[in-house]
Design a protein that fits this description.
globular, alpha+beta
Amino acid sequence: MSTPGAIAVYTSGSGVPEHVSERPWRGVDHFRNGSPSGLGKHLIECVLHVKGDMQAVVRQLIDEAPWGWTNCMPRPDAPEGERHTEEDPGPRVAQDETGLVAYIHVFNLEARRLDAFSTYVGDDGKRISSVVFSPTGVPDLPALGFAKILRAHVARDFGSNEGS
């Protein structure tokens, strides 16, 4: 069973929207594991990995993958993830077309924030969480299980065995 999601970036406006339709955005489909605990966690790890360069994450996951993703998370058989192609595109995801995804993860580059919205029936596009990143990419959510991610990155980047 798959939980479809979307990866997006705001195109204008400001503030923290309570509903996915309150600010303009553009994005791409992500077919597998689009939940906050799957894709959301992976997006946080991506920002941490590039030391806060959120524009690089948007470029890689949205701009360079205009047809969307089956899965952007690396696996042993697909270390670069699995992109949709022009010949086999993912479903269109837009501000007025959210019905095929359960979650939408939207980057706010100016505010250094990632907003998550639930578009499941009954949630109807409400914002369910936001993560703010430091200039070096550290998320403000260590209490929600991201401390282990941070330790793993410190261990990898600085050679300690703390992340084990």
